[in-house]
Write a structure and sequence with these properties.
Elements lengths: L18 H11 L4 H17 L10 H13 L5 H18 L25 H9 L3 H13 L3 H5 L6 E2 L4 E4 L8 E4 L5 H20 L11 H4 L14 E7 L6 E5 L2 H14 L8 H14 L4 H8 L4 H4 L17 H4 L5 H4 L28 H4 L3 H6 L1
Antiparallel strand pairs: 1-2, 2-3, 4-5
Length: 384
Amino acid sequence: MTVHGPGACSVGAMSHPTLLQVVRERLALRRASPRTVEAYTDWIKRYVRFHQGRHPRQLGESEMTAFLSYLATERRVAASTQNQALAALLYLYREVLETPVGWLDTMVRAKRPARVPTVLSRAEAQRVLDAMRGTSQLVALVLYGSGMRLSESCALRVKDVDLDRRELVVRQGKGGRDRLTMLPESLAEPLRAQLDRVRALHRRDFAAGRGHVMLPDAMARKVPSAVRDVRWQWVFPATRFYRDPATGAWVRHHLHQTVIQRAVADAARAAGLSKRVGCHTFRHSFATHLLEAGYDIRTVQELLGHRDVKTTMIYTHVLNKGGRGVRSPLDALYQPAGAQAASTPPRDAEPVTHDRPTAARNLTSLHLIDGRALNSHWREDLRR
């Protein structure tokens, strides 16, 4: 369509949004997190490249199945990764392209295998934490002491630390939900000192004409002064600035997650641990140690921010001792030196009846009882 007249331009010549731009706009309308937007757009690009640049409207069930099979067989991705790719493509066809076909409902998700989380003992956690230094150590202490995710701890703001009530406020956690978690008593003074350093750093930045911070949603438009308010500053700020392309202001972001991830990996190696330790391992250990201490699983669920208690129940596998708290009969035969005094029975567990022998016994020297004599009156017992 062409509009005639002086200064008129062709409407058809106007630029149309690309497919990925439409995807980003639709995800923004659904209030999807930036990481979700990045993941979905990346999978759509990989899907188009896999089929030599053909438009998704020209592709169907067989092409999507071929792409997912390629991920599973040749790329050997995990089931969760394959399901994420499927979710991105289903969103593309249903919400963006609005494809009215029934084959989308027949797509089968990959079955995720049951995984046991890596949990550190208290001694192992202390060895890893003691091997760390500086801000990375403080972040790791927050991870283990509060059960927060790495992204949540890095995104802590000054206003979200309540030293009086010993609470940390998690804003827009997983699923966009806020929650409260504990601030360990032992971290009150270290966090107070960290907040003092943040305020001093902000004063220097403010004096240099900087000190801006990225704000959520439309806060910068509603409260323009908040971009330089110390309450909105990050608890763990980055060491460098970046220039905001929209405003041109110099902005200080929070500490990047990879800094903490590398520090935790280096500390685990320095501590000599054979386990695969990451930042999320502290969250697993936090939940397991609370349950071992006898805290209610519903309380742990709220602290972790799990939507379903079934997710929290995965940590009950290592309560008290390995193997669901059951003592192996082999330990009754070959008791390690000093282990009997150190071991304690599980909470509310029945007394162990096979803990007396400490070595294999010679059965030929015992008086054997005829089992038939013991079982001869079982019918009379039932009649009683």
